[in-house]
């Protein structure tokens, strides 16, 4: 599959470090954070990547990653001109993907200790719809929390930062879609904060009975806080797959 990496955002929780660099370029062990996601994707067979970031960060990503040659991939860059949400950022990758094509979407601050190849293989065998990966957490109210039909292996609904979580799992930032996701993005409306939310996209699949899930077997982290960034550095120790 091809993959889209979304690496925009202001990194508010990591200021003052993010005053002068994009959070996805902060060091985790010996490497910039973004490099771990690229390495995991390559390990899973991805060779073509679309990287979406903001205008002010574009040059820094090109400086670090170039064409992707050193990482065994080909990278095409797209610029998100304003903060419009994850789904809007994903929309920018539409010209790079073919009708009927399956692809993965990775939020660039999501880090995984294990290979994601088995999940990609499962999704390639899935006839249609989408797939998300779940991870057990102690504080699900901080995340998007799924209500699951475990017998059917599908998600019924995802609620963002619920007061009363339906489960102790969160939806991680690695999604797999069929190219019809762009039709869904065309049909959703901006949220109260004026952005196109990826949870609304995933719920469109869920309510149609087409959102499957797998539970991650290894460690996962969204390195968006100082605590999680420190944890990631300790866990990964600069080792790339």
TrEMBL record:
Membrane spanning stretches: none
Recorded catalytic activity of this chain's protein: dTTP + alpha-D-glucose 1-phosphate + H(+) = dTDP-alpha-D-glucose + diphosphate
InterPro entries in the record: G1P_thy_trans_s, NTP_transferase_dom, Nucleotide-diphossugar_trans
GO terms for MF: glucose-1-phosphate thymidylyltransferase activity; metal ion binding
A Pfam family: NTP_transferase
Domain Nucleotidyl transferase: 2-236
EC number: 2.7.7.24
Protein name: Glucose-1-phosphate thymidylyltransferase
Lineage of origin: Bacteria, Bacillati, Bacillota, Bacilli, Bacillales
